[in-house]
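Deliverable D4.2, example record:
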Amino acid sequence: MAGGLEPHLAALRRELGGPAVLSVLVALIAVAITFLLWRFVQGRKSSRKAVLLLGLCDAGKTLLFARLLSGRYRDTQTSITDSSAVYRLSQDKSTNVTLIDLPGHESLRLQFLERFKAAARAIVFVVDSVAFQREVKDVAEFLYQVLVDGTVLRNAPALLIACNKQDVTMAKSAKLIQQQLEKELNTLRVTRSAAPTSLDGSATGGPAQLGKKGKDFDFSQLPMKVEFVECSARGSKGEEGEADLEALQKWLVKVA
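Output generated by the structure prediction step:
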């Protein structure tokens, strides 16, 4: 009896070891690994709840921070430390992010970025649209330092360039600011990529490459999604009026 079953068992073992079954097993393993990686990435993203407000001094970050939280105008001064608060989205009060306003002073901004960058779900880089033409090199320099940071590149938080002070007649448009920043960042990339080499001819290391090698830089080359909006933390009616932050608020809902 046992001897009669042996050929059938052998055939079954051969069938299970055949290429068709192996292909199915490999496919199942690949799906399982992909799912686990997706859960891991989503878990890391959901643990990052901070929205960082970055920019140069006097770009309007602190007033923007206050307007988002209270809707009211208040006099501000140059920050020397961070400020943080929970921001509840108007459409869904159960969803919130932590807004963190970081100092814009040259001697402090990278120090505070280093402290909070790992927690960033998104970054709002605030630009003074009125002073932009004379500050473009400084703005691009700081933005470059943010964009080549290893943690920022790895986590790829959503990035919004908020072109503030649009209530002023001389304010530059978001489109012009984007074009000028891409031009300046491309120049910075070229100069910074000429890294010094050691005696044996090998590179000594440095920041990551910005954008795609061999192509003029544009924001679409970055691993994170970059958007530009025009806004005014002061508002067209000044202290008594409301801020123009609708585009920024819609973006916060989207990235939360």
